[in-house]
Amino acid sequence: MSDEEWDRFLRESVTGAAGAPVEPSARARQVERRLRDGSGPPVGWRTYSTARPRRRTGWYLTGLLAAVALLVVALFPQQVVGWFGGSDGERDGASSGAGAAGPREAPGAGPDLRPTLAEPFRGSPAADWADGPAGITVPPAKATGWMDAARVEQALQQSRDFLVAAGLDSRVLRGERPTSAIALLNPHQKDVQEYLRTALSSAALSPETDPLLLFSRFRPEQARLVGDVVKTRGELTYREGKRGAVEVTADVTFVYPVTPAGNDGQDAEVVRTIVRRTVVMSWDDPAKVITEPGRMSLLSYAIDMTNGGCSAPTGYFVPPFGTSDKQPTDATHVDPYDRSKPMDTSDGMTGAGNGCATATRS
I need a labelling partner for 294 at 20 to 30 A (CA). Which of 1, 108, 120, 132 fits? Predict the structure, then answer.
């Protein structure tokens, strides 16, 4: 190679030969790829971009409506049942198998059918109610006052046991002494113990000492239950009371189908005695109140009854068989199945002899 050719080679290796292809740089290749793909400006180092909003009108709206519907059902289950034509029992606050939990209105009027020995709840809203203890609803237990959740649950169960022993025990219904119910009461509560002594042993009763305030009793020689089923609807509620006590309130309606004693004919008269009873019970802290383990004090007790007697207290329900003890036609009319309003317990005790009203149905 001559000296001139060598010099030309060195110059072209630095400046490039004329017409030689040029290799694009990495930056140039990135810009070219971005322009070709339409991906927008490059993302810088240590930067972030927000997610691009996407329209999901159909599925998003469906999911939103479903969530709202579930929330409405969870918060207002009884009203939703009413929108879709639930039964009378359901509109009264609960299904027939669940007892009563917060009724919103009185049950609707059904066919006016006469009860019989074979169908003692025929024509009555109670036909859809639960049997016996199953109709008394017990709420979930939470730690309250001096009790933890387990003790509250026990107190609620024992409160329910008291209602069962006082209003459903077959021996008590036949007029026997309510031993099991009394065993749950605080023996150191002097006023209640005095009431029990007077109510269960005295022939001269007053509205304030009537045993029917707490116990359901029929005189065996006058009336007997039809079958073994008593329909119930009611509930327990609780809160923290005085001195940290757990205060349990029971509001329960009992429906007793009865027939005259000794009358077993197919055409025997059947009368339903309907009793709504409210009892407020206090489960006290033994460190603050003199009591015994597993015993409660009574704060108040009251009763409303239909077809149970409208004369001076006798200590027993007196169903109006035939023409005896008919209720006055000019009395106030009441619906004994209407649980939408609380009982008037302003005086703490409402006795059987504090006036009578005419029942619109039984």
Answer: 132
Tokens of 227: 């079958």
Give the per-residue pLDDT at 91.
35
Give the amino acid at 221.
Answer: E
Q: What is the pLDDT of residue 157?
A: 98
Phi-psi region of 307 (alpha: psi -120 to 50; beta: other; left: phi over 0): left
The tally of domains found in the chain comes to: 1
pTM of the model: 0.69
Tell me what pLDDT residue 304 has: 92
Q: Say if 265 falls within a structural domain.
A: yes
User: Is 58 strand, coil or helix?
Assistant: helix
Once rounded to an integer, what is the mean pLDDT over residues 195-224? 93
> What phi-psi label fits residue 348: left (phi over 0), alpha (psi between -120 and 50 degrees) or beta?
left
Q: How far apart are CA 278 and CA 230, in angstroms?
A: 17
Mean pLDDT value of segment 207-231: 95
Q: Are 230 and 317 in contact (CB under 8 A)?
A: no
Distance CA 298, CA 248 (A): 10
Residue 45 lies in a domain: no
- Do the beta carbons of residue 333 and residue 356 sit within 8 Å? no
The average confidence (pLDDT) of the chain is 77
CA distance 135 to 158: 16
Residue entry with tokens 């239950």: 225
> SS3 for 194?
helix
- Confirm whether 103 is domain-assigned: no
Write out the two tokens for 313: 């207290």
**Given this model, what pLDDT does residue 73 score?**
54
Which pLDDT does position 52 carry in this prediction? Answer: 30
Bridge partners (DSSP) of residue 281 are: 248, 298
> Which pLDDT does position 332 carry in this prediction?
72
Written as six digits, the tokens of 37 are: 């793909």
Lowest mean pLDDT among 104-118, 240-254, 262-276: 104-118
Cα 271 from Cα 114, distance rounded (Å): 9
Three-state DSSP state, 140: coil
Domain encompassing residue 173: 108-359
Q: For 359, phi and psi rounded to 5 degrees?
A: -80, 135
